[in-house]
Amino acid sequence: MSRPFYIKQTKSGKVFDVANVILMLMFMVIVVYPFINIIAISLNEGTDAVRGGIYLWPRKFSLANYKYVLNNDDIYKGTMVSILRTVIGTVTAVLGNALLGYIVSCRQFAGRKFMRILFLITMYFGGGLIPGYLLMTALGLVDTLTVYWLPSIFSAYYMLLCASYVQNIPEALFEAARVDGASEFRIFYQFVLPLSKPMLACIAIYVGVGHWNSWFDVNLYSKSGTWDTLQVILYRMLNQANALKDMTDSTMIAEAMRGIQPLTIRAAITIIVVLPIIVIYPFFSKYFTQGMTLGAVKQ
Amino acid sequence: MVAATLAASMLAGCGGGGQNAAEPKESSFEGSGEVNRFGWEKPKETLEISVLDASGYYAPLEAQEVGEENNLNYLLEEFNVKMNVEHVSGDGTEALNLALASGDYPDVITYVPFSMVEKFVRMGKAVELTPYMDTVGSDVKERMGDHYSLFLDDEEKLYYVPTLMGAIVELPDRCAHIRYDEWQAIGSPKIETPEDYYNALNAILEKFPTTPNGESRYALSFYSDSGHYTDPAMLSGFWGLKSGYKIDDEGNFTHWAFTDEGKEMTKYFNRFHLDGTLDPDSFANNYEQWQTKFSSERVVGCVGEWWITYNSGHEIWQSVDPDTPEDKRFIQIGFKDEDAENVYLSGKNYLGSYCTIITDKAKDPEAIMRFINFQATDMGTALTGWGLPNGTEIGDTGEEIKFWNIDEDGNWEVDPTAREQILNEQWSYDNAYYEEGMPWLFVDQSRWEDGEHNFWPNQMWYDENKWKSIMIENLKDTIYDSSALTLRVKTDEQKIAEQAVADAWKANWGAAVQANSDEEFEQAWKNLQSALTSAGVETLEKALSDNYKANMEKMEAQ
Amino acid sequence: MKEKMKHMIKSFNKQRQLWLLCIPIIIWVVVFAYVPMGGLIIAFVDYIPGMSIFDCEFVGLKYFRDFVMNPTFLQLLRNTLAMSLLSLTVGFVAPILFALCVNELNNKKFKTVVQTTSYLPYFISWVVAGSMIFIMLSNEGVVNDILLRIGLIDAPVPFLTEGKYYWVMYTLVNMWKATGWSAILYISAMSGIDTQLIEAGAVDGMTRLGVVRYVILPTILPTIVVQWIIGIGGILNAGFDQHLVLGNASTQAYWDVIDTYSYRYGIQLGYYSLGTAVGLMKSVIGVLLVWATNWFCRKKLDTAIF
Q1: Which CATH number among 3.10.310.30, 1.10.3720.10, 3.20.20.70, 1.10.3210.10 corresponds to the domain A63-298?
Q2: pLDDT digit string (tens) for B231-244?
Q3: Do C160 and B284 touch (CB under 8 A)?
Q4: All partners of chain C with 3 or more CB pairs under 8 angstroms
């Protein structure tokens, strides 16, 4: 959705364009630099990196960190679980929230407000850690893949986002279909879904990344380690030093310190975890840039 | 309907599983009569023990994973004990609370914080161990020695054994450090008082004002992590306080922030700040950031654990540049304020910081106690601390690592090569992970009766190690027994006061150290005191005093 | 009356299908959201894990009182409100402005590159981000080094150890991390704009600013309102991980917020009742604020979330 040719370019408009490009370039430096830095550290020899001072380029180049990480079977297993979780979690959540969003935006549906409030309350009130855990135990969901996606299919927030988008779709479209005798579910998948692609792509990214990045529930529910995700492996490495907080014996701390994953390994895993998202993102973002032309459908 | 049932079962807390731990269970343990070379009588039927390691944030190096597997296999083959170990990957305490709430935990839990032991006991889910202490657990009791009474509760019952207990009496945990080669370059002045240390650091700064890369240097730098802190309580030891408290003859405690010594100590560090030689990031560095600064030679001196200058100093320098001269390293020193009677830097707490409990899930607690007792024997300690004997493969490199040997008859020795490597500081700790990894149920790190060996491979034969003997000699008068000072059983009010007091000094002490004038310092000091007062420092002082007096009585009575 | 009943039944029949679709959703929400809410009782009893909630001693509002009476309460409230107000203003507008600016970029390739890099910081975990921020902002950090070199300052600015910088730093760091990420939402909402509308506007002689004002903003307004109302409801959430990595002892008086307090005392010390009480308090205030904001938005902007 760039400036259409038919809008006149003014002088101040040109100044803005230049300033805008400069601003964006500056912004890019701030957001990209940290990544370059992590990559540089991940390509550096381990002990040498402790001395700091690595910014854009490794000082003592080494691929040993990536070799070490990629030799680890847990990483492969974790990646498979992460992919499985993200795919199932995203598909179910996108469909679920789109359906819910459609339902609560149907103007003539009497239960609209009831459903909205029913879900809004859940946004603010929750039982907390222990009741949630006991519920999953009671449902037998501990140590399963289901525990990752089932409790997060619907969410009040995504419901609202979907609804706010669906509201912009002309109601007449649905009415016409209803007159033709289409069921509500059919209207949903034949009209609502295809017409909401940009919003669905956006929610898919939010939900998908949420699943890919989450570690909290994995720490709680993957007790046997079977369903450990890639992110949780990284999380543990990054937060390993927290285990020292209860130690008081100095020799014990010394030994624990020795077992802490080197900085460079942590950097390598960070890169490995983020890479898939960077690769996949453009496939979704094309739905934003294409732009939807509602007019075409209206006719 | 379903929802209501769910809700009810959830709220009821389903506690579930296991019988009441209070009722003693019959032991079905039957020996096979075959005693192995470590002195363990193999059971007739394989003894199965499931263990939860609750230390938390488990992120093993690959070698550590292999090592644990090696050890568990060894246990099965040589001991006929099948151990299953689960590790908590998030916060340990949180996991234990959830385990307690859901009733989902195994036979044995190790690395349990004392506060959680209390909860398990209160819910009747920890097995009472007192009955075993004179039978199958006698070695454990012997190891506990004089401190045994401190492990008992008010009803003289024992519900846990320490996961790691004891102390290496001569090893100073905390001390001051100074760069050895630079100290020699300024003429090796004697360092006996804080003033001497101040002068020596400044003399070094004057002689070597920049790092080899031309960066400026600081006399001192602090670090603060969650739990790993340059702690004024420890620093005040140079001025004669014990664990951060002034204890009068009757056993009454006064927090360091309300003593002249504490104020003098703070003024001392404030002086470095006024000179501009205290790292301005002292209260922002975490340990790793501090380490970066330290390893690039930005810091001339430091105060803290004895090993921080090892793993942030020469160990890094030697690994990056093998030609690093031997003298380029730190030595550990102590000093004493003129007015102080004694220096108390390293409080040796024999009670340990974690506990191991046998839970109500255990079918045969007595048999498990037997194995715990084995870990208390010298050979059990050796196997747990030194790793597997007679050589273990280093991954798939085809090479072997071994620390010790033992033959079929139980004759053992520390491998001479390993000993040599330890003494020359060439022992590969990375490779040693392949032979280590025995779960710790009960470990005593005190030196054995032979006066030579102990649990840690690298804490023996100090007098043959040049650098360790310098350290031991310099700090021999700074170590004290702090077991009786340790407050274990706390009321809710005391727990909250303890946390609030820690919050209060952390938030306010730095301002005093970094005050830019006398008035500012006095103001900061007043703020510190009033923050501590409103946090409930008096509650804590009283609790510590009462506990200390009671413990002294207990120990005398024994 | 009878007439009304008849009408209701008729309308219900019409909506039967929608209600049918709702049934599984309602079951889900009851099981996964409303059943655990029973656990809120924990706030009113002296809860010990492993004990049935019904067996725990009932203490009424003790934990609410404990929280409000604690000596740092006012400080916690001040910090929480200060930082969340900054997020709700500066932090809220930034992604919208950013999305608008990205939208105005003419070069399609450049636009894609900006978009795909802008959200990168979001993926850096706070622990890693924290150590980078330290390298940048510490007394010897890169920023101070540059400022010293170009002569803007004489002595390093203690960004990390002086409390008064903390709120601003927190806001900036959050913006660095989340602006690109939150902008995705607005960018996707903008892509729903009907190009015919813009063409029609152009014919009427609309300027670029006019397009933004009369076409783009109205399109994304519902999204903005949703974000705003939800944001207001979260006014007592003012970050958590950020403070654990950005904050340190010397700045604690400025970063300690309700959530970090409730973590230290509720989770770390194991007082789940205290933690639950604090959470419940936050929820009630949040819901009241949402309700009020929603009412206001419906009156003034004609958009609301319920």
Answers
A1: 1.10.3720.10
A2: 899 899 999 999 99
A3: yes
A4: A, B
B15 with C160: Cβ contact below 8 A:
no
Please give the pLDDT value at position B22.
52
pTM given for the model: 0.89
The per-residue pLDDT for A293 is 39
Q: How far apart are CA C11 and CA A196, in angstroms?
A: 27
CATH architecture of B42-168+351-387+436-444: 3-Layer(aba) Sandwich (3.40)
B353 touches chain A (CB under 8 A): yes
| C28–A154 CB contact, under 8 Å | yes
CA C139 to chain centre: 31
Instruction: Give residue A289's pLDDT.
Output: 55
Per-residue pLDDT averaged across A166-181, rounded? 80
B174-344+487-557: which CATH topology? Answer: D-Maltodextrin-Binding Protein; domain 2 (3.40.190)
Instruction: Show residues of chain C in contact with A204, CB under 8 Å.
Output: none
Q: How far is residue A278's CA from residue C207's CA, in Å, rounded to a whole number?
A: 36
The CATH homologous superfamily for domain C72-300 is MetI-like (1.10.3720.10)
Q: Which residues contact C279 (CB under 8 A, 6 or more apart)?
A: A126, A128, C43, C262
Kindly write down the DSSP assignment for every residue of C194-245, as one continuous string: -HHHHHHHHHTT--HHHHIIIIIHHHHHHHHHHHHHHHHHTTT---SHHHHH
Q: Which chains touch A (3 or more CB pairs under 8 A)?
A: B, C
Tokens of residue B236, six digits: 């005040």
Q: Measuring CA to CA, which residue among B183, B189, B266 is closest to residue B222?
A: B266
> B547 versus C5: which is more confidently predicted?
B547
Q: Do B98 and A129 touch (CB under 8 A)?
A: yes
Residue C140, chain B, CB below 8 Å: the answer is: yes
Instruction: Write down the ipTM of this complex.
Output: 0.87
Domain ranges for chain A: 1-62, 63-298
Q: Under 8 Å CB-to-CB from B507, ≥6 apart: which residues?
A: B531, C249, C250, C252, C253, C256
The CA distance from B220 to the nearest CA of chain C, in Å, is: 15
Buried b (16+ CB within 10 A) or exposed e, B16-45: eebeebeeeeebebeeeeeeeebebbbbee
End-to-end CA distance of chain B: 60
